Amino acid sequence: MRWIGDPRPDLAALYSEWDDDGHRGPKFFQGFELWADTLGQDRAIMVQYDGGQVGGVFTRVNHNGNLQIAYSFPVPFIAHQVRIVPDGPLRYIGPWRIKWIWEPTADLAKYWHTQYTSHGMRGYHSHRDCFIALQSTSEVKLIVTQDDGQIYTYLIPSTGGFIKKPYEVLQPMKAKLSQYTLLACRPFRVWQKDCEMRVKEWGTDQPYQIMRVHGDLHFERGARI
Asked: How far apart are alpha carbons 31 and 196 in whole angstroms?
């Protein structure tokens, strides 16, 4: 006798592996697609992140057969790694089983230093003002250091954990090269796309150009779920 069949995944209450989804950095998690079979039974699934924190709980997960169903988090969260923890047996199906849906975001850091730069401008340049898009829980210092040794310091109040884009008028200055530093006593996030440092070549009638000198990537595609 020769049995003919296909191997099937285990029907068990298995935790998924911790997963960075191929991106070794923080992610703004919006949801996931689960490819599984619960045999028509309701299951509760907890999504954990970064060592066991709870990102969301879904209490009526029911896949009656080989189904792919999308779930979205009522409150998105930022994490490096995630996994799902079911309360009872289910069968994961397919090559990927769980497709996480997220956007990249900036990490938490106390110091954000740039290299010296001329911004690609000829000769000298000058500054006008800036917007810094950040999320902080303590006061943040913006330090502008010029190649002639001049240092200018500005204080940005804490955003209280909210995402804000405070405005700062910069002092008159003239430099060939500038370095920009953001620092605080507590880690904070900075988003590059929404930061603006307005700079122009010295002695020209050209308008100020927007330079984005701090922060990391975010908002690549928006909300896919």
From this structure: 31
In a domain, 10, yes or no: no
This prediction has a pTM of 0.90
Task: Evaluate whether residue 15 is within a structural domain.
Answer: no
Label each residue of 114-131 as H, E or C: CCCECCCCCCCEEEEEEE
**CB-based contact 9:51 (threshold 8 Å):** no
Which structural domain, as residue segments, surrounds residue 71? 27-104
Of 80, 104, 128, which residue is a domain's last? 104
Per-residue pLDDT tens over the stretch 53-104: 999 999 999 999 999 999 999 999 999 999 999 999 999 887 678 999 999 9
Out of 63, 83, 104, pick the residue that ends a domain: 104
pLDDT of residue 10: 77
Q: Can you read off the two tokens belonging to residue 70?
A: 């999308």
DSSP 32-93: EEEEEE-TT--EEEEEEETTTEEEEEEEEE---SSEEEEEEEEEEEEES-EEEEESS-BEE-
In a domain? residue 5: no
Residue 6 has pLDDT above 70, yes or no: no
Domain at 172, CATH number: 2.60.290
Percentage of the chain with pLDDT > 70?
A: 97
201 contacts 121 by C-beta, under 8 angstroms = yes
Q: pLDDT tens-digit profile of 25-37?
A: 999 999 999 999 9
* DSSP bridge partners of 35: 68
Any domain includes 69: yes
